[in-house]
Amino acid sequence: xxxxxxxxxxxxxxxRGEVVLRDIGFTVRRGAxxxxxxxxxxxxxxxxxxxxxxxxxESGSVTVLGLPAGxxxxxxxxxxxxxxPAIYADLTVTEALRYFAAVLGTAPSDVDRVxxxxxxxxxxxxxxxxxxxxxxxxxxxAVALLGTPELLVLDEPTVGSDPELxxxxxxxxxxxxxxxxxxLISSHVMDEAARCDELLLLHxxxxxxxxxxxxxxxxxxxxxxxxxxxxxxxxxxGASR
Amino acid sequence: xxxxITFATTRRILTQLRHDxxxxxxxxxxxxxxxxxxxxxxxxERTFNTIAxxxxxxFPFTIMFLLTSITTLRxxxxxxxxxxxxxxxxxxxxxxxxxxxxxxxxxxxxxxxAGISLTWLGLDIAGSVWTLLVIVVLDAxxxxxLGLFVSAFARTEFQAIQFLPIFVLPQxxxxxxxxxxxxxxxxxxxxxxxxxxxxxxxxxTHVTRSAAIDGTLVRNVAIIAxxxxxxxxxxxxxxxxxxP
Lengths: 241, 244
Fold this sequence. Notes:
The structure holds 2 protein chains of 2 kinds.
Chain A: E1 6-15, E2 18-28, E3 33-37, H1 44-52, E4 59-64, E5 67-68, E6 78-81, H2 93-104, H3 109-117, H4 133-145, E7 151-154, H5 163-178, E8 182-187, E9 198-203, E10 206-211, H6 213-220, H7 225-240
Parallel strand pairs in A: 3-8, 3-9, 6-7, 7-8
Antiparallel strand pairs in A: 1-2, 1-4, 4-5, 9-10
Helix pairs in contact in A: 2-3, 3-4, 6-7
Chain B: H1 3-18, H2 21-42, H3 45-77, H4 80-85, H5 91-118, H6 129-150, H7 157-174, H8 186-194, H9 196-209, H10 215-238
Helix pairs in contact in B: 1-5, 2-3, 2-5, 3-5, 3-6, 3-7, 3-9, 5-6, 5-10, 6-9, 6-10, 9-10
């Protein structure tokens, strides 16, 4: 069995004076789709920022592919896409991707590959600022796919997408996982949880549970994952009283 | 430092500008328009000759300062900066990429403004036109570097615009254009001595009056270039891969 892709131990993060992540610890298996789920504002994005190494952390450690998070050795091996598309609005899709490809030092043909993968071929010559919300999200994802990273950290990649596109994206995520890529995908929509191999449930900066969708259903005795999540929160709050 | 990434960054910034032709036209035309306005407001070739070279340096300095601080701030606020910091790009690769792109733009802007001033507007200088151009391009680069640096202290574009009156106008008042630096009180003189634009105006005034390339001129030019490099390095120091 391979070493885990991500190991988080005792992670504590404070933002603007408030503790947003408290003593979080978990591991993420390689070659699987791990879903990071929880309501808005529960700390998902901060956790992802800590994993890609752009977040100042108060204590604890984050190890990614065997190296400390954010180290120079990881910058070609980890793909990251923020929730808000971080891509130059005044460039065309191809021009923007070419720039990021040049920074990564990958072959120019890689740009065509990720455009194909994200279904952006027909809008490759359009300015990013003129794309629809869903297309812009895909362009944002395309940047993360450049250079075939071993780990993809995607913050709400399907938000704002219509059901058909969402389905296509999830097929892409699973195809990537089958080829050996590790994916950590956040979502606040619980019906996406069922599409993950493994789940991390985050609530108010604490890790509520780590389990498979089936394991979670079995543990709570509820077939619906959203209800299962709510039951876990209630159980936690009941226990702490 | 990686020259491939620096060059790719320069190309990316110039491509962004290419998609915004109105900005490019404004950039190239505004200093020339201001020089023309100045010529007709003064309505005297002699007065124009004494202050035009200094303003030929100050206009591009100001415009490049504003342009650069807004553009780099935008890079931060749209999240592309954070994305770049997760990629194998050095902070200096990014900053030098910006400096080269805006430096090229500034050179073009200066060539047009100086060309119009020296021909149509009848600007006559004692020194070499090339020396004048070198100093003016350095001034524009200094504006670029300072703009990169101060954008670190702005969170919004409104704040970035406020830095123009804070960083540029005092330099304009103290640079010796309005009152010669020798006639200032000790405090103002001391302030004037630490502000880089003073050396730019000294150098430009020298080129206007004399054809000699003496030690003072070389020192002044070296100070402008040194300040530009210093501002770039300080700018790099303000960029952080990890943020709160």
